Amino acid sequence: TSNAMPHAPCCVRTANWVGSAIDGLLCYCRAGFEPELAGELTERAAMAGFAGYARTERDSGFVLFVCDEADALSRALPWSTLIFARQKLRVFADLDMLDPRDRISPMLAALPQDIRFGELVMEHPDSEHGKPMAGLARSLGNALRPALRKAGALTREANPRLQRLHVCVLDGNHVLLAGSEPEDSAPWPLGIPRLRMHADAPSRSALKLEEALLVLLDADERKRLLREGMRAADLGAAPGGWTWVLTRHGLRVQSIDNGPLRQHVLDTGLVEHLRADGFAWQPQQALDWMVCDMVEQPRRVAERMASWLREGWCRHAVFNLKLPMKKRWQETRLCLDLFAQQAGRPLTIRAKQLYHDREEITVFVTPASAPSPAGGRGLG
Ligand code: SAM
Hints:
By secondary structure, the protein is an alpha/beta fold. It is built from ten helices and 15 strands. The chain has helices at residues 34-47, 70-76, 104-109, 134-150, 205-216, 219-225, 241-248, 263-266, 298-310, 328-343; strands at 12-13, 18-28, 53-56, 62-66, 87-96, 119-123, 164-171, 174-180, 231-235, 252-256, 271-274, 287-292, 314-322, 347-352, 360-367. The strands form two sheets. Strands 1, 2, 3, 4, 5, 6, 7 and 8 form an eight-stranded mixed sheet that branches. It has a seven-stranded mixed sheet with strand order 11-10-9-12-13-15-14, sandwiched between helices. Helix 9 (298-310) runs parallel beside helix 10 (328-343). The longest helix is centred in the middle third of the chain and has 17 residues, at 134-150. The structure holds S-adenosylmethionine.
């Protein structure tokens, strides 16, 4: 299947609405992190040889990257390699000043001519301004879906192999139309996996590791790399959320923290609590996993994580890098480069700002020899 998005009719202007074809990427992010995402897209596009520019507004929860060669750019920047993008869509229309009495006709008119979408995803930015659009997005979707089917632009039954059509509602009279490739995008609306906090989880942080395992590993890796009887270390473990997640996969965990762990985590019989400094402690035998959620300067964490991989103390790792308030994209780049250099061995490194990450990103590392079905998912 080709993932080229045929051009929509350009710059149509009627008495009632203003629509313009726009070529580029629409990426969602945590509100407040638009400069980081814009910086990442701009730098990655330039490195891949594409001209373009980011259009962004602080706290909007999304970035538009405008580029004439958007299909090729999209292929050069796979979703899984973008750190600050929760979702990556191929945007093709920007419809503003829509008439509330008929928002559907302009949307139908702006669709690419010969694409049949397999699903319609109605969404809105995850921002203060965007969240109240959820109701409108839903009702608009209810009206649009049958109209799309009638026009032959949407399959009768959902078809997960075909491109999805995304309608991003920015305002009552302003929507963006975009498409996504199922194999190169987040499968969740808004790019947010809905995870329920388990009643037994010792902390909300447990959701961070659960999300990391869901987003940064594929299904095959989760099965192969997380098996009963494996051994792990958890640096900065208290009160025990991440340790608890690992024990639920049957791993035996050495949990390093001066703070206390919740009793029911210790009661699993799989956990050894060690009151030690996570920057000095090292395991006596090579472990399968190391996870680390210590709140510390990101460069210091990156360097310590690199020692673990270099010395072979663990095979796989998940760690957080807490980002400072300023120059967060540059700091991210710097820390990941530092880590890759100092680890000194071929690694697959995947990093994302997860939904449950606030001022931080999460990194997954595994030996590069491990087959990676998506191919080339390392940092660009
Ligand atoms: N991942 C944990 C969970 O899911 O419950 C939460 C970890 S909390 C964000 C950070 C922890 O790192 C704190 O409990 C703190 O005591 C610990 N920490 C910070 N610096 C540390 C160090 N040098 N050695 C060991 N633990 C450290």
